[in-house]
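Quick question, first post here. What does this chain look like in 3D?
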Amino acid sequence: MSARKSAVPSAEAIARADRQRLAAEEGVRAIADVERQAVEVRKNMARLRELRKAKEVADAALAATLPPPAPKKRTRKAPQ
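> Answer (accepted):
Ran it through. Tokens below.
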């Protein structure tokens, strides 16, 4: 017997092709979603980094204007 492909695809072949096409489309959407989320994360990280740097600069400026803290006096223990 010779195994020849018929010109008309079977119902199973059509269903398999549809599943493969849908899986490929879903994969493309998933990859695009992951890439979009990665961009959003990087933007947020940059925003937070800028906020942190601005706060550090403001804290340094405030510390420069404040008088230095007074040294703490040592207390002596009473002899027993």
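The longest helix spans residues 11-65.
Residues 12 and 36 are 36 Å apart (CA to CA).
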